[in-house]
Amino acid sequence: MKLMKLISSDKILLGLVGLVAVGMSFIYLGKGAVTPPQSIQAKSAATASLTTNSRISALEKELESKLQANILQMEGAGKVQVSVSFSTGLKTEYARNQNVTKSTTKETDKTGGTRETTAVTDNNQVVMPSGSSQPVMVMEDRPEVAGVLIIAEGARDPKVREEIHTAVQTLLNIPSARITVRVMGGP
Questions:
Q1: d(CA 93, CA 147)
Q2: Which CATH number do you get for residue 167?
Q3: Is residue 77 assigned to a domain?
Q4: pLDDT (tens digit, 9 = 90+) per residue, 30-68?
Q5: Residues 79 and 146 in one domain
Q6: Are 97 and 173 in a shared domain?
Q7: Are residues 101 and 120 in the same domain?
Q8: Which residues of 84-105 are buried (b: 16+ CB within 10 A; e: fewer)?
Q9: Domain span at residue 175?
Q10: By Cβ atoms counted within 10 A, which residue in 44, 132, 149, 170 is the most buried?
Q11: Is 28 part of any domain?
Q12: Which of 186, 179, 184 is nearest to 155 (CA)?
């Protein structure tokens, strides 16, 4: 008799363990699946990040080319190589539709007391043109220059090195400490 009870309680215990395992697998599989809207949002954010990084790289390359072209025109500079890095990303400001609503309510109770309540609602939304997924841009600033490295053949001459340094500082309007001019070595 005890043996039958033990066997039946083992079957019940085994059944419960099996149910818990199946339930846990459903929970695990349910959390692992990404719903399409989440997937689209993740891809959109990744695309925006890649687009921003490629735009920053393009701006760096454009600035390097312009600086190199200007320095090459300087007397005594010789061959020149320029590297520019930014410390910040693009700064973008979007148009906003700002609505501020103010309402005042005055109440009088039975005993003659008055109570005044003021509610202020501030609605500040980004302006989206109809049919477009991009907001209206008001301003876009270039990133801040972190540093500039110029390697020039003519940098052996201290006068040429100083002229290159001053020209870059003037063109970019950055502190002198962010500019390094070195002598080009090798063949």
A1: 25
A2: 3.30.300.30
A3: yes
A4: 554 444 444 444 444 444 454 567 778 888 899 899 999
A5: yes
A6: no
A7: yes
A8: bebeeeeeeeeeeeeeeeeeee
A9: 58-90+142-187
A10: 149
A11: no
A12: 184
Question: Are 85 and 106 part of one and the same domain?
Answer: no
Other CB atoms within a 10 A radius of the CB of residue 136 amount to: 13
Both structure tokens of 112: 């003659």
114 in Cβ contact with 108 (< 8 Å): yes
Q: What tokens were used for 80? A: 């020149």
Whether residues 182 and 103 share a domain: the answer is: no
In the chain, % of residues over pLDDT 90: 31
108 and 183 in a common domain: no
In this prediction, residue 29 has a pLDDT band, given cuts at 50, 70 and 90, of low
Rounded to the nearest 5°, which phi and psi values hold at 48?
A: -60, -40
Total tally of structural domains belonging to the chain: 2
Alpha-carbon dihedral of residues 69, 74, 80, 83, nearest 10 degrees? -60
Identify the bridge partners of residue 104 per DSSP, sorted by sequence position: 118
- 121 touches 141 (CB < 8 A): no
For residue 64, being part of any structural domain is answered with yes
